[in-house]
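During the reporting period the student researcher (J.K.) took over the structure-prediction task from the postdoctoral fellow and processed the backlog of single-chain submissions. One of the processed entries is reproduced below for the supervisory committee.
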Amino acid sequence: MSAEKRVLLGMLTPSSNTVLEPVTTAILQELDHVSAHFSRFRVTEISLSAAALGQFDDRPLLTAAELLADANVDVIAWNGTSAGWLGFERDVQLCDRIQSVTGIPATTSVLALNELFQRQQISRFGLVTPYTDDVQSKIVHNYRQAGFDCIAERHLDLSVNFAFSEVTADSITQQVKAVAQAQPQAITTFCTNLRAAPLVADLEAHIGIPIYDTISVVVWKSLLLAGADPTPVKGWGQLFTTEAP
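J.K. obtained the following structure tokens:
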């Protein structure tokens, strides 16, 4: 009997992020034939300054994607949330360019989240981030323009990307529970350097509301694009019970 074909997931990673790699690897640990592989480009600040916005120009991301392509990955995912404030079309264009340059299917955290919102008919959601007031306002505005109403939000007013990784589990839990009081249809923990994904299963059990973390959603969508079943992933929330359409 031949061994199960390996599935290789490529992840584009902000340079100052210390959460998404260990969390992604932990999510996949029960899938013996699946592994995640990472390529970095420079991101140190999340704000609306010209320098911070310029970090997300396509060229560094495409260079990082080309390096992942050398590993023959089955999918390339931008494991970041910048389209939340830059506009969703940025991620659509980025995926088109990645596929054009590498020939490999591409997705992003934001596009995966938006697909879930559409599939689950989520129109009223809660938003939890570590971001600044103005970045948060941009995210809320872009979702509203797309037909998704943020009815409750919490943010920590941080801009240094590394600092997001040091937000405590207690702080994240308090944010989520505060947002849950508004009874949204779903809550998103929206930042791939926020250590929220490991808290999701327990929080969902406590508040009775689905929580879509942006690290988890891109793993879920990457598995689907690579032709792998996400449902064997256990202990990371109800997201992974969501099969391919």
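The committee noted the following: Strands lie at 7-14, 34-41, 75-78, 106-108, 124-128, 149-154, 186-189, 211-213.
J.K. will present the remaining backlog at the next meeting.
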